Automatic annotation (TrEMBL):
SUPFAM superfamilies, per the entry: Periplasmic binding protein-like II, Winged helix' DNA-binding domain
Source organism phylogeny: Bacteria, Pseudomonadati, Myxococcota, Polyangia, Polyangiales
Residue ranges occupied by any HTH lysR-type domain in the UniProt entry: 12-69
Keyword match Kinase: no
Listed InterPro entries: LysR-type_TF_proteobact-type (IPR058163), LysR_HTH_N (IPR000847), LysR_subst-bd (IPR005119), WH-like_DNA-bd_sf (IPR036388), WH_DNA-bd_sf (IPR036390)
Top-level lineage group: Bacteria
UniProt similarity note: Belongs to the LysR transcriptional regulatory family.
Protein name: Transcriptional regulator, LysR family
Pfam families: HTH_1, LysR_substrate
Single Gene Ontology MF annotation: DNA-binding transcription factor activity
Keyword annotations: DNA-binding, Transcription, Transcription regulation
Organism: Chondromyces apiculatus DSM 436
Length: 302
C-alpha cells in the first residue's frame, strides 16, 4: 500500500462513501440529503471531504446543476459494489436472515408498466427492508451514470458485460378505433396499409422509426405517416383511440381498449410476431437485496 493510500484511506469514512454514492445516484445534494435524512449542506461537506482526500473533483457545481465528472463515475463503479458487499457481510455476520438494501431498476412503459410492476404485489411483504426505486424510462439506461442495478430491455442483448434473463415474449398487432374504420374503411391486406394514416413511433435508442412486423419471419415495413410519436409508445395508442389512424403495438398494452371496444384489431391474421423482453444487470457480484429483486421478478414471470 502506497503512502498516499495509507494517508488518504482513514479520511474517507463509510458514511462519506455512502453520501458520495447517494449523491451520484440522485444527481443532487438535495436528493441525496432527502434519502439519507440529512441536510443538503451536510451532504455537500461530505462530498468536499471525499474530494479533498482523493485530490480530484467529483462533481462540477453550478447554481442550477450538479454534474458528476468522469472521475466520479469511475470511483462510483468501484465503491458501490464494495458497499453492497459490506452490507451483505453485515447481514451474514448477524445471521438475521433479513435482506436489506436499496435497489434501483429501470423499466420501460411497455413491459414495465403493463407487466412487471403489477407483478410486484407481495414484494414489500416478502422483503420489508429492501427499498426499491423504479425509474420509468424508454431510454437505454447507463448503469453507472444512472446508478441502476437492474433494467428491462427489449430484443437481443448484445452487451457482453451484462447478464440477461428472459422475462417473456409479447406479440404485436395493428389497431384502430371503430370511428377511424368507419370513416376510412379497414385494409384487407398489408399492401393496402399504404392507403391509410399510419402512426409511426420513433425508437429512443436509435432515433429511427420502429419497424412494423408481421406474421412472416422476415416480413416488415417502415410505417410512414404525418404524425410521429417519440419517447413513449403509449402515445400511438392514444392517437389510435382518438381516431387519428392505425398503430402497431403489443397486444398486452391494449387489452382494456379492445375489451371496451375503443380499439379494434386490424388484419389479425397478419399479426402475431413476437418480441422478447429481458431483465439485465452487470456481470459483477450483486448484493443480497438485488438478488432478492431478481429472484422475485423471475419467479412471478414463470
Amino acid at each position: 500500500m502506497s503512502e498516499r493510500t495509507r494517508s488518504a484511506f482513514p479520511e474517507i469514512s463509510l458514511p462519506l462513501l455512502v453520501a458520495f454514492c447517494r449523491t451520484f445516484e440522485e444527481g443532487s445534494f438535495t436528493g441525496a440529503a432527502r434519502s439519507l435524512h440529512l441536510r443538503p449542506a451536510a451532504v455537500s461537506r461530505a462530498i468536499a471531504k471525499v474530494e479533498a482526500a482523493l485530490g480530484v473533483v467529483l462533481f462540477r457545481r453550478t447554481t442550477r446543476q450538479l454534474r458528476a465528472t468522469p472521475a466520479a463515475a469511475r470511483y462510483y463503479e468501484e465503491v458501490r459494489p464494495a458497499l453492497e458487499m459490506l452490507a451483505g457481510a453485515e447481514e451474514r455476520v448477524h445471521e438475521r436472515g433479513v435482506v436489506r438494501g436499496r435497489v434501483r431498476i429501470s423499466v420501460p412503459t411497455t413491459w414495465g408498466l403493463h407487466r412487471l410492476l403489477p407483478q410486484l404485489e407481495g414484494f414489500a411483504e416478502a422483503h420489508p427492508a429492501v427499498e426499491l426505486d423504479i425509474l420509468v424510462s424508454n431510454m437505454v439506461v447507463d448503469f453507472v451514470r444512472e446508478g441502476c442495478d437492474l433494467a428491462v430491455r427489449l430484443g437481443r442483448i448484445e452487451d457482453e458485460s451484462l447478464v440477461s434473463r428472459k422475462l417473456g415474449e409479447a406479440t404485436v398487432g395493428m389497431f384502430a378505433s371503430p370511428r377511424y374504420l368507419e370513416r376510412c374503411g379497414a385494409p384487407s391486406s398489408v399492401e393496402e396499409l399504404a392507403e391509410h394514416t399510419l402512426l409511426p413511433f420513433v425508437a429512443p435508442r436509435t432515433g429511427r422509426v420502429f419497424p412494423w412486423i408481421f406474421a412472416g419471419p422476415e416480413e416488415e415495413m417502415i410505417p410512414a405517416g404525418p404524425i410521429r410519436s417519440f419517447e413513449d409508445p403509449q402515445a400511438v395508442i392514444a392517437l389510435a383511440r382518438g381516431g387519428v389512424g392505425i398503430c402497431q403495438i403489443y397486444h398486452f398494452m391494449v387489452e382494456a381498449e379492445c375489451r371496451e371496444g375503443a380499439l379494434v384489431e386490424v388484419l389479425p391474421a397478419r399479426n402475431g410476431r413476437k418480441r422478447k423482453f429481458s431483465l439485465v444487470y452487470p456481470k459483477q457480484a450483486v448484493s443480497p437485496a438485488v438478488r432478492a429483486v431478481i429472484d422475485f421478478i423471475l419467479s412471478r414471470g414463470r
